[in-house]
Amino acid sequence: MNTAPFRSLVALTALSVLPSQADGDSLPSWKDASARNSIVKFVEEVTTPGSPHYVKPADRVAVFDNDGTLWTELPTYPQFYFGMARVKANASRHPEWSAVEPFKSALAGDLEGVVASGVRGLIELTAAPHDGLTPDEFEQVATAWLSQARHPRFGRPYTECVYLPMLELLRWLQAKEFQTYIVSGGSQEFLRPWTAHVYGIPASRVIGSTVVTRWERRDGKPVIVRTGKIELVNDKEEKVLSIQRVIGQRPILAFGNSDGDLPMLEWTAGGAGLRFCGYVHHTDAEREYAYDRQSKTGRLDKGLDTARAKGWTVVDIKQDWHRVFNFEPGPR
Amino acid sequence: MNTAPFRSLVALTALSVLPSQADGDSLPSWKDASARNSIVKFVEEVTTPGSPHYVKPADRVAVFDNDGTLWTELPTYPQFYFGMARVKANASRHPEWSAVEPFKSALAGDLEGVVASGVRGLIELTAAPHDGLTPDEFEQVATAWLSQARHPRFGRPYTECVYLPMLELLRWLQAKEFQTYIVSGGSQEFLRPWTAHVYGIPASRVIGSTVVTRWERRDGKPVIVRTGKIELVNDKEEKVLSIQRVIGQRPILAFGNSDGDLPMLEWTAGGAGLRFCGYVHHTDAEREYAYDRQSKTGRLDKGLDTARAKGWTVVDIKQDWHRVFNFEPGPR
Questions:
Q1: pTM for the predicted model, two decimal places
Q2: Does this complex have an ipTM over 0.90?
Q3: N or C: which end of chain B has fewer CB within 10 A?
Q4: Four-residue CA torsion sign, B310, B316, B321, B324
Q5: Which of A178, A192, A234, A241 to mutate to test the interface with B (most CBs of B within 10 A)?
Q6: Domains with residue ranges and CATH for chain B
């Protein structure tokens, strides 16, 4: 993986901005409220030797959704903007796209039409333009786009539009010997170039949607080649099946923000022993966005009801976070 | 995962039998010959800070085939015996099996017919009898079988028929901060219950063949259910595609023993920087087995030519290993 260009981009963002913290102050961007307290209580109970809920490090599996849980997903998934740009850039090779959704909407710059295609559309728009590329070539394309793209409201690279409190949580869990995974509906290969630098999560712990690949020889050397065909749309129940396929263990902690994460949270909750399930609830239109049951992207409806019924932790961004982004000049 | 019954079985085998070794003597079962020396030279070059070939721990990915590389695969893959037993045990529910290969041969106890079905047959025989089981239920079945099955020649549990020199190598690489993976044609869920105890390789680092799974509710609780349908036969080129899908990084070290491992070794060799590719060559009919180009199981033909042409390390069991198994009373 050629991460050099990207590393320079993110060197000043994300995990590297976090100051070292004493254990009791690992979550400085979290207000001293019930969400923070429930997280701290859980982590201490499962990591303190002698605790009745102690879990050995090998079993400390924690899974996080990405869009809307670790980074901002409105106006829509950043990957949708990537897909639209890539479809436009490759349109001349694909005249057939002008008549087929979600490509038609992408070419017309119709964000609403694109969003209506859902997570499958997201993966289609990322898959089709990159048919025939090697993973390394795809990575260069994704990295180049991410380095120049800016969030339409915040004017920052998407990789800076990550939630500071969640970065603190990831770092703290990693220090506590949790194996932190991303389990995303987004494309695995779109995430992998930057998750190590931004989240401290290596490629092997990124589980996302995939395309069918094939092995072939080019100039006598073996290469892996992406096709335009979808292998897996890693959403809803598929997230649970992926967790079993890739990790082979049931997580003890899961964080999501939408109904697409509900099966993963239910699966986590269903194991024996103490479990933590958390939802990020977007309630802060001023600092980020406020949306839930009616949103076209990241709809949180049944999940919110389930969380409340089961007593899961619902993080209210407005109430629970001192600070949302690192770039935010808000009070601390 | 319920590993308790299995843990007791293997507690006295495998990694736990290895004495702690000073760094220079981490491979006591390896003779002081070229195979050992090439391994030691490689590991020292990539792990010594300041070395021109230094590789940081995050990039120290090492992949190992299992059958014939870490444990004995003759008379045939242990999993074939498991599959035959399971097909017999479930035959009354499946009258159609009596007319279809490889089930027909399995029911007739025709080992040659079963072996002729190859790696796909191996996965079919493991998949079909367990349609409808959860992964936990499958694990109990596999563990129960492994606890009572004995190797037909050595009279030992299959999990004791693991190569002591390879256990030493795994342990040494793990101590040197390598991420050691199994990349096997065998079924992932057949391996996972015991690889942590025997090889020090956790479930999340076991990549094997898989069946299609589905999510459903039983008594209101979400469960994962195995189907009898094959999702992936993780052999040959598929091993390379799996490595990219699951690990997302090209390995710097790969060990195999058959032509089925050749693409994985070529893929490893094709990366930039220093790489290690090794083949276990079965040359010791007295202590284990002698086979290569003509074998129906674990055929090593094109791979042997390629290894010699490219200067890869070919481990000659007879010449290179003081001791093959822990239970072997041989000279040291």
A1: 0.94
A2: yes
A3: C
A4: positive
A5: A241
A6: 4-74+156-320 (3.40.50.1000)
